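Troubleshooting entry. Yesterday's outputs looked truncated, so today I'm pasting the complete records for two proteins to confirm everything comes through intact. If either block looks cut off, that's the bug. Protein one:
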Amino acid sequence: MLNDIEIAQRVQLKPITEIAKQIGLAEEELEMYGRYKAKVRLEALERAKERKDGKLIYVTAVTPTLAGEGKTTTAIGITQALGKLGKKVALCLREPSLGPVFGIKGGATGGGYSQVLPMEDINLHFTGDIHAVGAAHNLLAAMIDNHIVKGNELNIDPTRIIWKRVMDINDRQLRSIVTGLGGKANGLPMQSGFDITAASEIMAILCLASDMEDLKRRLGDILVAYTYDGKPVYARDLKAVGAMTILLKDAIKPNLVQTIEGQPAFIHGGPFANIAHGNNSIMATRLALKYADYVVTEGGFAADLGAEKFFDIVSRVAGIKPEVVVLVATIRALKFHGGLPLAELGAENLNALEKGLANLEQHIDNIKNHYSLPLVVALNRFPTDTASEIQLIKAYCDRVGVNMAISEVVTRGGEGGIELANAVLDGIGDENNFRPLYALEASIEEKIEAIACKIYRADGVTYSKEARRSIQDLKQLGYDSFPICIAKTQMSFSDDPSLKGAPRGWKLNVREVKVSAGAGFIVVLAGSMMTMPGLPKHPAAENMDLLPDGTIVGLF
């Protein structure tokens, strides 16, 4: 049995110019990165601006196990299935971060016979977008420190610098550090730290910007520090915007690759959904919508994270909405949420599965009743699933009036997604009264509590003293009309990863609140969520190698 990378390495890729031609992109609108990858010039979006948008299909999932439940694979499989049905379709995904690739997940380009290619390139550096974001972020950090050392005309308080540094590797040792040690020639000693690049506000800005001018405006609006008398200092005050834009001039262009079966795939931007807003770039999605009749995209982690942030943040900024939502579920995940240990998920257990349905039920209720969107449940089938377990899920979905389709795209590619693709096409015609969860005019606390109580089903919200003080500061600065981006664990509806299923009788613990003024949202850190992940005891990197003939092995 072949693993993912072996399957990928046996595929004969099509030249990227052929992939572009399928949806009407001209060769002169591409900037080639070899034969099988390209960036798309922004002029292509301008040329198509008067065209009618295609239909947007949004893929999300139930609360996952540690291994994930195949959401990205399902999105790729739906795209391949729609291609087999003769539809003009394109896929939009986020770029993998090196942190998870070398950490717990390994590769992040789908699995089995539903992958995006070339998978090694996409997982390892790709076209350099994430590195460009890191360089722009760290340039700004260096300019802040340099400004202070060289006279501090802006009167920046070194103890109130809120702009840290980033890198695209999980490294817990760098979460909190002291810089500038070693005497005056090395700067001034200051407390700082590192986030992972996916959590950088510049990554969010790249994904939310509508064009180059909007990118520059947003970069200028980044709040980096406060003065000794409490006044805000922005990136534009440091005259950093032009240089940062230069570093991002290519990164802003969407990347074009292909699925195993030759459908166009735009992979652009990489914010995590547990610590950032978790969706690919607006520019890539808009480009796909102008050139394809159907566009499949996905948000990170479960529907309470990536999907909530798409509905409440991205849709407002982009002015787009999904025509239908695909909610990926697995029997093993639902048994896990029904109390079964990870080691026993392969054995039939109808009792645990029945209990775990509470997690599926809450996600369905949120999508249907809080966002008023049509919904299809995609049951990502695993070899250990039994007929009785599948029938239990099917009976439940029939009972609550939700269409369910079995997906076998991992083992059969697009052919294994035909049933699901037809269910998705049927769902596009269903009633769609999409609306965000909250009004932007609501207070910061009201918006946080709307997400906590309506989506997570918390009994309320508790705030640290620091969080309450920050909220008042943000109100005084005029940021109370921003949407909310909650950073919390992906392993539970709650902020406690040990609470499975659909927990009740708990409160969301908000420990920190800060603004991403350039991105245009307020970040709320809940529970013990960290913006710089650590490596597991046995990281995926231990299993990777480069063979003498240049073949990469162990990458998922």
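Protein two, checking that the full record survives here as well:
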Amino acid sequence: MAAFSSRLTGALLGSVAAALTLAAGSAAAAQAPVETRPRIALALSGGGARGLAHVGVLKVLEELRVPVDCITGTSMGAVVGGAYAAGASAARMDDVVRKVDWNDLFTDRPPRDEMTPRRKQDDYSGYFAPEIGLRNGSLRLAKGVVAGVTIESFLRKLTASAAGVEEFSRLPIPFRAVAADIETGQQVVLGQGSLPLAMRASMAIPGAVNPVEIDGRLLVDGGIANNLPIDLARQTCGDVVIAVNIGTPPMKREEITSALSVVGQLVNFLGKEHVDQQIAGMTAQDVLIKPELGNITAASFDKAADAIRIGEEATRALSAQLRRYSLPQAQYVALRSAQTRDPDHSLGRFDAIEFEGLVLAQPATLLHLMDAKPGVPLDEDTLTRDLRRIYGRGDFDSIDYRIHEQDGTRTLLIRAKEKDTGPQALRFGLSLSTSLGGDSTSTFNAMFSYRRSWVNPLGGELLVNGQIGRHSRLGAEFYQPLAYDSPLFVAPYAAFGKTVRPIYASDQHLADLVTRDARVGVDLGAALGHWGELRIGALLRQANATTETGPEALPDIRTSDNGVRLRIFGDQLDAPWFPRSGHRVMLEVYEALPALGNGPRYHRLDLSLTRAYSLGEQSIEATLGAATSFGSRLPSYAAITLGGPFQLSGYATEQFSGQESVFARLRLMHRFLQLPGPLGQGLYGGLSLEAGRIGRSYSLLGTKGTTALPDTLWSGAAFIGADSFLGPAWLGLGYGGAGHVSLFLSLGVP
């Protein structure tokens, strides 16, 4: 009886407990409705410019009120997906994609007005664009044509609304990017750290864009490992996967026309099998969107609007399948309201600015290049200009930043990766020209330079350059800043070489004057911000000028030529040879002082002013020049000359020489093709109108007097030109009146 009573009591208590539990569960259910809709994951494939179709897909998904609970992406899929996950709306991304200058995006050099004066002057040397590193006795090339500094800046702006979020699961929409380890070829899933850096790693096409180092691994475009990460999307959150495959179909043989196209074809082949496997694993609940992009290639960024439209059309064609997952209006609006954030480009104030990763470069020198200061409000645009300015020194493979907050202190940490190919670099160049006219001439020169940066903590730089050909030289300069944050510098230099100048009597080429000289000097200078620099210094020179071909047209000279030189160089042109905006000022004054070596006494001033304007693809460049000896007599090797392409184009190169000159040029240009950033600026066609006068020209055949050309010389040219990574090139037809016609072709420095 006791046992039965005990069992009955237990049963009653159990029933009461079950009833209480059920009631509690019902109350909780009433307070928090259970979400029954499936979680939807978006998987976006890579494909370069074809990936802009993803923007069109997102626009239609928003129209259909299809929710997105997580995103995975590869390459351009990671760019579009990462921006959407960070809070950008499809409409905002559409606007950004249509307005961005894609050529500028794939150019890492900062605008020339932000470059240091030394790097601007390099532009006039005629060297090819690529630098070749020299380390441990071996030559090293960059790992990519594009370093990706400008790309990463663009990605930071695109994801500004999620700045500071380092766990991608905590983004408004959880996100994963796919990259590949170039050492092993394995897939690397990026789910934390810097979102822009992860996006750039995912799109780093091997050979085209520099790899990205993250956690000790060298990462490249994820397309070679998993170009359509459906499996990752399912793992991340997806009960249902919407996959968008815009992968580039294999190119035909006639379409494989460059190294980049070969690399692109290889990436396509490496990823195709894995994409097929991913698609084969999709279920009836999943949706595959495959925009038919036709002739839009991975490089067709100029067809962004077409790619977006095709993405929209492909998605609307599947509306019936997608509407299965549409949410009621109010519910979808609430979801998107939580997922969408307005970009905030203000970074606020920082208590400190520090650098990470520096080995040779010194923080104090780099801080001097920045407008950002501790305690001053900072925005993304200002910081972007600062980073590009630092990158423009030529010492770094990459540069980015992160924000670190600890114990109430906000620190801006700038991560600068010094060049694997540095700090020693070689550059090479060619200069050739030929003209057909009254006097056919041809010249050829091969050039090289060696640069050793950060010789000491203050940023000392050794520059050695040489040239072999019609004009030969070998010179070296050591540029030494006087303090970390001082614009002052000292620059000793030495050089020797040979120049050849033609001597004319009217239109007749009589002889060549060959001048051999050796010089040493030292300049004290000041960098005038990014505008230019001022130098003043002493120069000691030994000159030997002789007529080596033809009759003895001018007396031989063997003398010392010592004096003081003042030089001002200011350059804000956007491009050195085909400028579309900005100005340039070049002034040099030389005073020869016999007291320093019993040489000739003379004075010389050279002044050149250039201004450029543009409207659309049209541009105007105006140049004024003047040179004078202030009434003194210049030795023959220091003569002022005019003649040749764009210096009176209808006449022979240096056909006119004398003691003073005035010159004016108006060049009208049309850019009919803009080249991708790594290849150059563009192809141009134009007209050049020129006028000049030489005063007190040299009389010839041994006499010591001077004569004057009586009239202003007029000339002009019609030309086509290219501003390429190999340097400037021109093909033109010059006319100088009275039958003076010249057909000229030149590559390199004119």
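Both blocks look complete. Sanity check on protein two: The two ends are 118 Å apart (CA to CA).
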